């Protein structure tokens, strides 16, 4: 079965937007990865094409149950509904804390959002830092995080094979890799204010897998200069490429610029699960993808290097990947 594409008309559900482009959003059936070798090879091809051409896609049949997805959104929204005093217990501007709540624009890109960010893999190392309010938070978010770590492993395996790398390439490091959950809470759009909740950026890791309670995510597909709204496809998870996969692929696939706009109908929650290598592990262009015609395009860097880079971004946002490009002029 070929990948299906969502019609462009579905890509303009959020109000106050410039006209949607004729960009098709690939929807990939992940179940095809565990079928016979021929079906799996076709699925890998579809994922590879989506990564190269769009930088993002939706996945369905990913095995994460509707109740686990719903549970994660409920846990996030109930956390944001706890008292200001409780949320303040997690407030910090120290980006190295294992959990951090914030409301203002100290990262250079938040316009109107509050967020809770914490690590999740391996769960037993991090869950002790997570909120105990609502009482179901740890169970619901933990179930979701474990499932997303599994999906990210499947996706990375397919993406790396699509790049021509060996099966199981980096597998062990990915299993022990960083999983960073960003829970975002945006107010409803009010016609006086700015419509952007989170300004244009790309994510640092290999992959981001995003769950949104209602539309608001916009992406800038490669080679286009327009924002395109990502609709909420029932049961689907949205996947996009981060800076470190651009580096690993030596620029064969590019990280995706995206932003969040405020929803005119309701307050909105999104949960971004960002997946990468362990914190101190350097990501460099894969040797297999570097040759005379394709010299190394990016410097190596780790998640720790990304954290060191962040403070320079506060007054003048720059994408991490831009800071890694080797100038060959
Ligand atoms: O809220 C969204 O849709 C996007 C969130 C996001 O880009 C992020 O957390 O990095
Ligand atoms: Fe993001």
From TrEMBL:
Entry keyword set: Iron, Metal-binding, Oxidoreductase
SUPFAM superfamilies, A to Z: Clavaminate synthase-like (SSF51197)
InterPro entries: DIOX_N (IPR026992), IPNS-like_FE2OG_OXY (IPR044861), IPNS-like_sf (IPR027443), Oxoglu/Fe-dep_dioxygenase_dom (IPR005123), Plant_2OG-oxidoreductases (IPR050295)
Keyword RNA-binding annotated: no
Highest taxon in the source lineage: Eukaryota
All residue ranges annotated as the Fe2OG dioxygenase domain in the record: 174-277
Positions of transmembrane segments: none
Listed GO MF terms: metal ion binding; oxidoreductase activity
Keyword Chaperone part of the UniProt annotation: no
Similarity comment text for this entry: Belongs to the iron/ascorbate-dependent oxidoreductase family.
Protein name: Fe2OG dioxygenase domain-containing protein
Protein species of origin: Panicum hallii var. hallii
Source organism phylogeny: Eukaryota, Viridiplantae, Streptophyta, Embryophyta, Tracheophyta
